[in-house]
Design goal:
three-stranded mixed β-sheet
């Protein structure tokens, strides 16, 4: 099976297979060592249109680099946004269930939004909102936002007691918080 692009396979001890288009237009397939070539080939085929779209975007951004400032990516289509929101809902539902059990807290409804000013929120009734763009961030950042919002089920503030709860679950939470502060804006530039 041939593709209209070349790709590089990077094997590691990861558990899932993923495909990445770098800013300079390379296609990387990150794969568990257990995946066969046939499985990888099928995975690439299924994602061919996604890859082509991102290759085109990478080229467009490359071309725009000569201009001053950061080029704005093309607006997301409604279909793409709906797909990202669905993925985000699955991920945040799983993570919230997992951490709520560990933290022994309850919660209400989970909503997925796209707000430039906040990553997550927790209402007094325990309803949670998460920004779908977080799924483009490192895993530890998602975990931090989920734990942060669930900690509000115990402390509806950002007191020392609140952060003690967060730290008891994620001792390294400051690193994720720092990433959001320093690099969170890049999540609006990826797609």
């Amino acid at each position: 099976m041939s593709h209209p692009f070349e790709y590089e396979i990077i094997y590691s001890s990861r558990k899932t297979i993923a495909i990445q288009v770098t800013a300079d237009g390379r296609v990387l397939v990150r794969s568990p060592r257990t995946c066969t070539n046939a499985f990888i080939e099928t995975f690439v085929s299924k994602n061919e249109s996604w890859v082509l779209k991102h290759l085109a975007r990478a080229k467009e951004l490359e071309d725009k680099k000569k201009d001053a400032g950061i080029p704005q990516p093309p607006p997301l289509s409604g279909k793409d946004r709906a797909r990202y929101i669905k993925i985000a809902r699955d991920i945040f539902t799983r993570k919230t269930e997992y951490y709520a059990r560990i933290m022994d807290v309850s919660y209400g409804r989970i909503s997925i939004r796209e707000q430039k000013t906040r990553w997550g929120s927790c209402s007094s009734k325990g309803n949670l909102n998460f920004n779908w763009r977080l799924i483009l961030a490192p895993e530890e950042v998602l975990d931090y936002v989920v734990v942060h919002e669930l900690a509000h089920r115990r402390e509806m503030n950002h007191s020392r007691a609140f952060y003690a709860i967060v730290e008891s679950i994620l001792p390294d939470y400051r690193r994720a918080r720092k990433w959001l502060r320093e690099k969170g804006q890049t999540l609006w530039e990826i797609v």
